[in-house]
Design a protein that fits this description.
By secondary structure, the protein is α+β, with helices and mostly antiparallel strands. The chain contains four helices and four strands; from the N terminus they run ααααββββ. A hairpin with a 2-residue loop joins strand 2 and strand 3. Helix 1 runs antiparallel to helix 2 and helix 3 packs antiparallel against helix 4. The radius of gyration is 15 Å and the shape is globular. The N and C termini lie far apart (35 Å).
Length: 131
């Protein structure tokens, strides 16, 4: 199942927000925030990553392969993640949840989770060092 039009629109809106934060001449982001925004744009605009997301939603076999050795799957597909980004498969939430593809960005003491839930699409949340 390809990424739905609604999910693509939501992703595009989020990416435009990151791009706007990077190009705001009135208030430049700190180097840490700039790296976070740039990495999110790099991931969200990478067609190989988006193909992986689409395939992830369609293939229980791919889910198992990513759980077992995500680095090998990325390597076999020619996908290079940005510095500080790792890939995980996590169990979903609620009744009969599908697995979630998670990209984890760690920059200094900040950890950012970019999750792709097949039901709802992308969501991003940050975890401060004290959590």
């Amino acid at each position: 199942m390809p990424i739905s039009a609604v999910q693509r629109d939501r992703l595009e809106n989020a990416l435009q927000g990151h791009e706007a934060a990077l190009s705001n001449s009135d208030e430049r982001p700190s180097p840490l925030r700039a790296r976070v925004h740039a990495t999110m744009v790099q991931l969200g605009r990478n067609e190989d990553v988006l193909t992986l997301v689409s395939d992830f939603m369609d293939s229980p076999t791919l889910v198992d392969e990513l759980r077992a050795d995500g680095a090998a799957v990325l390597r076999d597909r020619g996908i290079s993640l940005p510095e500080g980004v790792t890939l995980q498969v996590v169990d979903g939430y609620g009744g009969d949840p599908p697995p979630i593809l998670r990209l984890v960005l760690t920059v200094r003491s900040l950890t950012l989770f970019a999750d792709w839930d097949p039901r709802t699409g992308v969501s991003v949340r940050a975890r401060a060092p004290f959590e």
